[in-house]
Every structure is written in C-alpha cells, then in structure tokens.
UniProtKB/TrEMBL annotation:
<feature type="region of interest" description="Disordered">
    <location>
        <begin position="99"/>
        <end position="131"/>
    </location>
</feature>
<dbReference type="InterPro" id="IPR018062">
    <property type="entry name" value="HTH_AraC-typ_CS"/>
</dbReference>
<feature type="domain" description="HTH araC/xylS-type">
    <location>
        <begin position="2"/>
        <end position="102"/>
    </location>
</feature>
<keyword id="KW-0805">Transcription regulation</keyword>
<dbReference type="Pfam" id="PF12833">
    <property type="entry name" value="HTH_18"/>
</dbReference>
<protein>
    <submittedName>
        <fullName>AraC-type DNA-binding protein</fullName>
    </submittedName>
</protein>
<dbReference type="InterPro" id="IPR018060">
    <property type="entry name" value="HTH_AraC"/>
</dbReference>
<keyword id="KW-0238">DNA-binding</keyword>
<dbReference type="InterPro" id="IPR020449">
    <property type="entry name" value="Tscrpt_reg_AraC-type_HTH"/>
</dbReference>
<keyword id="KW-0804">Transcription</keyword>
<dbReference type="GO" id="GO:0003700">
    <property type="term" value="F:DNA-binding transcription factor activity"/>
</dbReference>
<dbReference type="InterPro" id="IPR009057">
    <property type="entry name" value="Homeodomain-like_sf"/>
</dbReference>
<dbReference type="GO" id="GO:0043565">
    <property type="term" value="F:sequence-specific DNA binding"/>
</dbReference>
<feature type="compositionally biased region" description="Polar residues">
    <location>
        <begin position="104"/>
        <end position="116"/>
    </location>
</feature>
Length: 131
C-alpha cells in the first residue's frame, strides 16, 4: 500500500487532520498530494477524507446499535456533529439515525427498497505516488 494511503487511513479519525498533516509524513508537497488524488480517484483530499470517514461511519452505524450517532461521528474524525449529519445525509440520502434504522431491517429485494438510500461504498481504493 502506498505511503499516502497509509498516512490517510491511519490518521483519518483525527478531527484536526488536514492537507499539511498529510504532506509532512509523505515527504511530498500539497500540490503533489492533490494531483495524485485527482488523477487516481477524481477527488480532492477533503472529498476523499470525507468519503473515507462517512464509509466507516455507515459501517459503524450498521454494526453498533448501542453507540450514539455523536459517538460514531467523533470516532471517525468529526468534531462537529451537525456537520457530520449534513454530510452523511448528502452522501446516503438519509440521516445517520434513519440509516441505522434502515440497516437494521431485513434486506428487501432491490425493487422494493428505498431508492434514496445508498449503501456504503466498497472500500475506497488505495492511492499512491507514481513510481
């Protein structure tokens, strides 16, 4: 796995993680980090970080019924719960609480499931610097 992916996947739960926090441990500059992410994934650092955090939050919401939404938001790197709720709804089409309720239901055939709720994406692809 690439150094960039390692650093992001190891530190994504840090609410203070930002682009300069990725640049130093990867030994590159911010332009190169964004260039690699744009080329390989078609998204910026901030977008990739949010997708990673939201994917993990969706997994935790489905698996940890006893954990509060705020606890999950904090555990994946969001210090601001309303902001987490806003991003989650934009990504999945429902609130985290509704997502948890829907994920607890037995799976329905695709033709009768809610069209607005998208399942969490598969593991996000690893990114790296060209050799």
């Amino acid at each position: 796995m690439s150094r960039l992916s390692d650093v992001i996947s190891t530190n994504y739960t840090d609410a203070d993680l930002d682009l300069p926090g990725i640049v130093a441990p990867t030994g590159t500059n911010r332009n190169k980090v964004n260039e690699v992410l744009k080329t390989e994934l078609g998204m910026t650092f901030a977008t990739y970080l949010n997708k990673l955090r939201l994917t993990e939050a969706a997994r935790l919401l489905a698996e940890k019924n006893g954990a509060a939404v705020a606890e999950i938001a904090y555990s994946v790197g969001y210090a601001n719960v309303p902001y987490f709720n806003k991003l989650f709804k934009e990504e999945y089409g429902c609130t985290p609480k509704a997502f948890r309720s829907l994920s607890a239901r037995p799976q329905q055939p695709a033709s009768t499931s809610s069209p607005n709720v998208r399942p969490p994406s598969e593991d996000l692809p690893a990114v790296g610097f060209p050799a």
